[in-house]
Specification:
Order of helices and strands: HEEHHHHH
Distance between the termini: 47 Å
Radius of gyration: 25 Å
Number of helices: 6
Shape: elongated
Helix content: 55-70%
Largest sheet: 2 strands, antiparallel
Length: 194
């Protein structure tokens, strides 16, 4: 990386500014004031910041779309359950299938909802998180319902990103106010004689 690239990518010139409290994510800079920029949210971009450019319509679309997809998923699962009834596998297998999908949906709802509230710890990502992906896949209806419920209140993840953005702006302002003037032009302090 050349010196020009390093200087233009640093936080002093509006480069990457770390995200919210321990998030480990960068909020990219480069706005006209050289400060941090908001992190985009899927389907919403950065409209969540000022609730402009069709934010309300996007929220309504996300809520309706996730509810329609959840209903379609439930219909597909109903067809699968009818297939089990036709196969005459017995009530025990039917109960296991329903309980399995219900538990996976509840776990997926919880994990999705937690993802809207707090960032996962990058150090905690492990094989357990990778194995939970299959639970999320099976419980996709729970994830869609969490997305629907959150869309009724705000853009999913908006509160988290707003808090991170406010913290990044506050850090940026503190750095700017503490760096006023040219430090190289400051006069050196005279040394005290003993």
């Amino acid at each position: 990386m050349s010196d020009e690239q390093r200087s233009s990518a640093g936080p002093e010139s509006g480069g990457a500014v770390s995200g919210g409290a321990g998030s480990g994510r960068a909020v990219s800079g480069g706005s006209s004031s050289g400060g941090p920029e908001p992190e985009p949210i899927r389907f919403f971009g950065t409209t969540w910041l000022h609730h402009d450019r069709g934010y309300g319509l996007r929220r309504a679309g996300a809520a309706v779309g996730s509810l329609v997809l959840a209903a379609a998923g439930a219909a597909v699962l109903r067809f699968a359950f009818q297939g089990l009834e036709i196969a005459d596998v017995g009530p025990f297998v039917g109960i296991l299938v329903v309980a399995g999908f219900a538990i996976c949906s509840a776990l997926a709802f919880r994990r999705t909802w937690d993802g809207f509230v707090r960032r996962p710890d990058p150090a905690a990502e492990s094989a357990a998180d990778r194995s939970a992906q299959s639970l999320m896949f099976i419980g996709f209806i729970g994830s869609l319902l969490a997305y629907f419920c959150r869309s009724l209140v705000e853009a999913p993840g908006e509160r988290l990103r707003r808090a991170e953005y406010a913290a990044a702006c506050e850090r940026h302002e503190r750095r700017r106010s503490s760096r006023t003037g040219n430090p190289a032009a400051r006069k050196p302090r005279p040394k005290k004689r003993r």
